[in-house]
Amino acid sequence: MPDSKQESKANSRSQELAKLAQFVEDINSPESDNDLLSHLVESIHPMLSAEFLGFLLYDSHHKELKAKSPFLGLHAGVIDWTSCTILPGSKAEDIWKSREAIITTKAHTDARIRALNLNHLAKAAGIKNMVLSPLKSNSHMLGYLLAGNNSNDPPFNHGDQELLSVIAGMSASLLENAKLTYENKNLNSSLEKRVNTRTVELAREHQRTETLLRIITELSASLDLEHVLNRTLQVLKETIDAEQISVLIHRPGEAKLRHLASAGYMDVVHSSEGRVTAFDPGQGLAGWVITQSQPALIPNILEDPRWTQLPETATDHRSAIGVPLAIGEETFGALLLFHREVEHFSEDQLELVQAAAKQMSIAVNNAELYRLIRDQAEDLGHMFREQQIETSRSQAILEAVADGVIVTDANRRITLFNAAAEQILRLDRTQIIDQSLSNFSGLFGQAAKTWMETIQNWSKDPGTYQKGELYTEQINLDDEQVVSVHLSPVLMRGKFLGTVSIFRDITHQVEVDRLKSDFVATVSHELRTPMTSIRGYVDILLMGAAGSLNKQQAQFLGVVKRNTKQLSILVNDLLDVSRIESGKVNLNLQELDIVEIINEAINGLIRLSKDEDKKMLVEFEPDQVTPAALGDRDRVRQILNNLLENAFHYTPEGGVIKLRVLPQEDEVEIRVSDNGIGIPPEIQPQIFDRFYRGEHPDVLATSGTGLGLAIVKSLVGMHNGRIWIESSGLSGEGTTFYFTLPIYNNKES
Amino acid sequence: MAKILIAEDEQDIRDLITFTLRFAGYQVTATTDGEEAYQAAKDILPDLILLDVRMPRLNGYDACKKIKTNDKMQHIPVVFLSAKGQEAEIQTGMDAGATEYIIKPFSPDQLTERVQAILKNHGHA
User: Fold this and answer.
1) Are the CB atoms for A734 and A725 separated by under 8 Å?
2) Cross-chain CB nearest to A536 (options B86, B87, B108)
3) Are B83 and A528 inside 8 Å of each other by CB?
4) pLDDT for A557 beyond 60
């Protein structure tokens, strides 16, 4: 019955449609991927008489087609190992890319099933009839919907296949949607996470920026470093949650680190200059930070080698942050933060402290520069004031001195002319100051020519000044006034700055000298006349020319004679000294046979020896050739007489006096040695002083004026000779006097 | 016996020289100034003249010059005896024509010795 057949067909169709409608309704609210799969499997199963039903999904990442749980009719173990890698160029790829359904009744032997590596599954589960419906999305394959039956069942008919195809299409859409939904969900939560993270970061950034802003604001508020630093440290301390903050710097030239500022429970710095610590630069945590120019984040300072605890101190600090204070390459200080808890500070806080330190570096550096400039300005000001005081003091002294002072600059302009100079030179300084010295040559006349020329030479060529050169001159002014002038250059590091001339009115002094000389000459002369009488008459009496004398009379007259002689020597010596001093002795320089003069002097000594009845051996053996000396005959004789008489007087009877003449390069050296009492080294420097006679009793017992050697030295000096002595000071070793005279040179005659 | 003329204004010294030279065996004529000495010298033409420098009327230098300008007397040696012992003074004396210049104070021995030597040089025994 066709009607009933048709009717049953229509019935079956309507049943299928009802199933589909139900399916659509069922699968409309999937929760997750897995939920969706089991939901699909559960929904599809009632529509098909399939023992095996499940999905094979493609993992694009691993290029793998894999059976997914739940899979109806399969053990979990079988599900797990059912997979197929779709390799490029393989048969599996051809099948995959064809996107066609596979229908077979010999699943365990079908080549396509084997290519997709499902033959093992077919074998293990005993599947013969198998339909693989592709899960096709718009553009790509998601996998297959697998339905299978074992051998006893009839193969899937056309209707089943169509139904599977429709279900597969719908499942693909659902899976695609589910995937998209899932991905969307994931994206959302990841975005949310990122937003949250960013929000936290922003909050931190904001706090840091705010802190920095506050610090910058505090730092730029004033140049008063003390105030600025204290405020800044307070801000930093609150922000970072530190209990103690310190700023240490190393000032150039200072031996120790300086504690510049601090904030916290140990408030230690109360001065804008800070306080010098006991730390060497490079010592301790601050030292490490400064020398390494690196930050330090220390969880516990007690376990950190960089921390140095000074002896007899203790610390409560545990956590620490140290960051360098630097401008460019130059690190000049350290910012240190402490907390009494261990591991209190974090990397984040370190970063913030570093940022703050950068700002503080600029402020501290500015303040240090300001301090440096201020100190230098103060120093300069101080120096300037000192200089002013010194200058006015010098001015006052120069004004007050009795000597006339004239200062000229490098161009011979007169810059100073004091009151005494006005008086001595009888000039008005207002007409002199700031004028060139050359304008006044007429005023000083011919007498001051050399002085003027010397100044001129020095200013033209400072090289003409010899170091240590002393220019001294006596100027006779027109009105019989005599002025002495001392001139010296003012040099600074070899540069000629001008000259200083010191004038002294010596008119009176010269007059006094002359009077003294005249007086001494007159007195000496007047003394000689009575002395001639005394000496002469005593001699006559002693000669017995006026009748014989008894022994005592002769002895007493001997005393008179000796003292008269002494007086006579004294008068002669005084006259000599006076005349040498006043420059009245003019040498009559001539060619001298020194051997002859020595022989004459020796004759005089022999006479003296006889007169005094004191035996003395005199040795003199002249060299065959002795060059002639240049000298004044009488004065050289006087020198020799003096030296020989000294040797005679200070050598005990029976002593030896030796004379030698030694020609040297351009002079003749004469030696007079004795073996007398000698001269102790300590008094040797004084023996040429006037009236010096030492303290030796033998010397004091001998009559002498103490003028002899002074005259000898002056006379030798006038001859351009030298005189010196050698004596051990030991009695019996005696003394050797040396003096030199220039050699007579024909050209000089 | 050699004749010696002396001129010295100081009596003590004049007497001393006179005594010394007479004691030594000379014939001595003593005068008190240059002028007197010159006049005496003209009369007696001595073998040696001893002159003090500083004397009234005519000083020793001038007296010496006067003597040396007299033809009859210019050969007579003149010796100065003076307390003025400076180079310039000695030089003035020698320039005036003196043979020697003895500085006071001198000892009688020394004087006698010099006088003997000068006389010997001038041909007296």
Assistant:
1) no
2) B108
3) yes
4) yes
| Averaged pLDDT for residues A436-458 | 75
Residues B87, A585: C-beta atoms closer than 8 Å: yes
Q: At what angle do helices A158-219 and A347-400 cross, to 10 degrees?
A: 20
- Name, in order, each residue with C-beta under 8 angstroms of B53's C-beta and a sequence gap of 6 or more: B59, B60, B61, B80, B82, B83, B84, B89, B93
A655 close to A616: Cβ distance less than 8 angstroms:
yes
Nearest-neighbour CA in chain A from B70: distance (Å): 30
Q: Quick check: B13 and A588 CB within 8 A?
A: no
Give the CA dihedral A28, A31, A34, A38, nearest 10 degrees. Answer: -40
Task: Please tell me the distance from the alpha carbon of residue A228 to that of residue A363, in angstroms, as a whole number.
Answer: 9
Separation of alpha carbons A47 and A160, rounded Å = 9
Inter-chain CB proximity B10 and A533 less than 8 Å: yes
Percent of chain A with pLDDT over 90: 14
| ipTM at complex level | 0.84
Single pTM value for the model: 0.43
Mean pLDDT to the nearest integer, A507-522: 81
Phi and psi, residue A283, nearest 5°: -95, 145
Report helix, strand or coil for A491.
Answer: strand
Interfacial residues of A (vs B; Cβ cutoff 8 Å): 521, 525-526, 528-529, 531-537, 539-540, 543, 545, 564, 568, 572, 575, 579, 584-586, 588
| Max avg pLDDT among A199-213, A323-337, A615-629 | A323-337
- Position B21 scores a pLDDT of 93
Q: Which residues of B touch A588 (CB under 8 A)?
A: 87
Question: What is the reported pLDDT for A749?
Answer: 39
Q: Nearest by CB to B84, from A525, A534, A564: name it.
A: A525
Cβ–Cβ under 8 Å, residues A323 and A357: yes
By C-alpha distance, which of A549, A543, A561 is closest to B20?
Answer: A543
Q: Do A539 and B108 touch (CB under 8 A)?
A: yes
Q: How far is CA B7 from the centre of its chain?
A: 7
What mean pLDDT is reported for chain A? 84
Confidence of residue A684 (pLDDT cuts 50, 70, 90): confident
